[in-house]
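Bug report (template v2)

What were you trying to do?
Predict the complex of my protein with glycine.

What happened?
Run completed; filing so the output is reviewed.

Input:
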Amino acid sequence: MANDIFGNPELTRQKTAAESGPYVLPPEDQAWLDEVYEKLTVKMKAEAERVGTMIPYTTRDGKYHDLDVQGGLGFWTNGFWPGMLWQMYSATGDEVYRSAAEGVEERLKELLVTYDSLDHDIGFLFLPSSVANYRKTGNPESRRTGLHAANILAGRFNPAGNYIRAWNNGLWAGHEVSGWMIIDCMMNIPILYWAAKELGDPRYEHIAVAHAKTAQKYIVRPDGSCNHILIFDSKTGEFLDNPGGQGYGSGSSWTRGQSWAVYGFTLSYIHTGEESFLNTAKLCAQYCISNLAVNDWLPLVDYRAPEEPVKYDSTAGMITAAGLLTLADQVGEYEKGLYTKAAIRILRACDAKFCNWDPAQDSIVDGGTFFYHDPTGTNTEVPIIYGDYYFIEAIMKLKGKELFIW
Ligand code: GLY
């Protein structure tokens, strides 16, 4: 075989994602991972026995309370506890997890009847509950529930503007508007990819892809930072505004939104094979990695906010880590290390600063912040259920025990 002018034979090309195995962890990281997995199994078993079919959000006095959240049963976070239970069931086979997860799913199904509280976050509710159940057990009732949820999400698509409507109401410039689109929805559209495959009906995928392309065009900025919210004229599809949302302000870079972009564009690539989604995921990932690297791998609430006050959102770190590990599986052998090592650094930094491994207390990851401007402080640096979910998902990925949820 001929060498090129620098002496590189063709054989030095890197293996593609399909050809190469996972990145091999250095012994010190492997030892940390094994220890965390052991602590996780002890803590989660005690927690599942205590919490059962309650639907937790945060803790008070170290304990979860049922539906202790303003949004009630329809709140977007209510699928994460069953998601944690399915991950643990999948890894351990312990029936305590499965029976609790099935009990929560029964409760969530009520939402499809009452309907009014549902919005685009129906994916967050039913992918980690019903669709996870179907993927793990083949339960036909869970499949029907997942498909019902996918149809409700598809019904929120607006062809004038090509996006899925996020929220049901909200004021912009002093009047009620309906053309809301937000970055978070990149994690809801996988229920459409799933339905398209399950039914052999590409309509669902067309909607998901159209939405993802609109997000690519208007939400992701050329430097890899993201807007949180877009507002469209829902009659004409004209783009109107991109306010700051849950981050510091307009033009800032809300860290959790950045993590939804990393993970969400990776998922759109996995489900469609469209290369531009992979490149957008990499752009957003590299933006996150450089911001985290200069801050000891600890996620602030917004990457583009004043240095003081320092406010953390550990949940954004957990989502970013899970997203980076998913991305690492999609790239060639010499790129895997970048995303895997960054994910491990985030997980280890957050473990050292935020994790509570006491099995007598509920919740693992402290330091979650729901939004930047929180006048009461009640949603600032507290345990939040999705921080624990994505932490567990990331650990299961690294252990090769993950149940694919998205
Ligand atoms: N709606 C998802 C989030 O607050 O991150």
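What did the reviewer find?
The first helix runs from residue 27 to 51. The pocket of glycine is lined by residues 76, 121, 184, 246, 256 (CB under 6 Å).
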